[in-house]
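lol so apparently i was supposed to do this last week
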Amino acid sequence: MTHRRRVVRVPASSANLGPGFDAFAAALALHVEVEVVETGRFAVVTDLDVARDRRNLVVRGFEALHPADAFEFRITSTVPLSGGLGSSAAALVAGLTAADSLFELDADLLAHATRLEGHPDNVAAALQGGFVVCAPSGHVARFDAPAGLEAVLVVPYEAVRTSQARAALPAEVPMADAVANVAHAAQLVLGLVQGDLDLVARGLEDHLHQPHRAHLYPRSAELVREARSLGALGATISGAGPTVLVWTHFEHTGGVVEALRRRADGWADVVRAPFETRGADVRAL
Ligand code: HSE
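anyway here it is w/ L-homoserine bound
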């Protein structure tokens, strides 16, 4: 008997990018890879610290489109699980993409993934790669990173749950904070599209979510404040945190990595992760 099989690779992502709460994200070259094989019985095979039953997020993504009873899911990943790098979005997108390809469904994967994840930013970047701007209507505008822009991640050992970080947010914000974020978000996108890294640096400031979550990860918050003094363009809390996305000009990345390694000693890993142009990809049939 020929076993139907798919291998799907999906990138990690950093959401919010400072002022773009629940709207902006960028794909990063760390990946979840899933081999789905029709063996005749359900199984999840992985060394990762994730559920091996129907609660597994790859399986939940798959089962949004088709029952998983006859399929084995072999999951590997280079995406840190401590929080802020879109690992849950990548897993959901991997399951959805595998089912969509196996059963030739041509489903609206962005709509399914957004419903499962609760917000569109990480799933849009995981599906499409590059940088994404997501509107509440569901429309996504995508573009590529400008030349010379690089990313370094500071990944704390201690995890923070996204649900906890979302619970820390206020229901309403002052008009002045909303205005500041509109301005910075526009400057950030203009800077990225025009390749103006000084404008990118100006556009990284946030007033809507980072200040309200800083108490959950004080060392990450302090690093965001200090990043420019270490030679970076700036830094943002990656998604709901605690990971920090440090933005650099390629000529300065080496020195910034050295400074970050000293700064993160004992509480976080420092990982170079290029921005990723490719989104979810079916690599083998
Ligand atoms: N935009 C989301 C947040 C990303 O900041 O809560 C985390 O999944």
